Amino acid sequence: GCGMWVKEASLLQKIDPQECNRIISEIANELERKQLIYEAARVRMKIGISIPEDYPFRKEIIKQDGSLVSLLCHAAINKIKEYK
């Protein structure tokens, strides 16, 4: 999966930081082309680009690793509980 690509690109960071950033950016662009905007945003975080402010549940996923689906589901459940 893309996690493996990001991990390999991160290893390249020590050898050639510019090339590493280019690869990570391309991974993010490809994810975005596939309409995987949250995944793309999380990949861009690896090169210091913040998740856009207008993304729903941004605060809930910005500081956490793990399954994006799980994080978003938990965030949605918590938001629903707030309205009860």
Q: For the residues shown, what is the average pLDDT?
A: 83
SS field, number of helical segments: 5
The shape, in one word, is: elongated
Taken as a percent bin, the fraction of beta residues is under 5%
Structural class: mainly alpha
Provide the helix percentage.
55-70%
Largest sheet: none
Number of strands: 0
Description:
- With 84 residues, the protein is an all-alpha fold.
- The chain has one domain (2-83).
- Helices cover 69% and strands 0% of the residues.
- It is built from five helices and no strands.
- Helix 1 packs antiparallel against helix 2 (17-33).
- The longest helix has 17 residues, at 17-33.
- The termini are far apart.
- The relative contact order is 0.10.
- The model has no long low-confidence stretch (mean pLDDT 83).
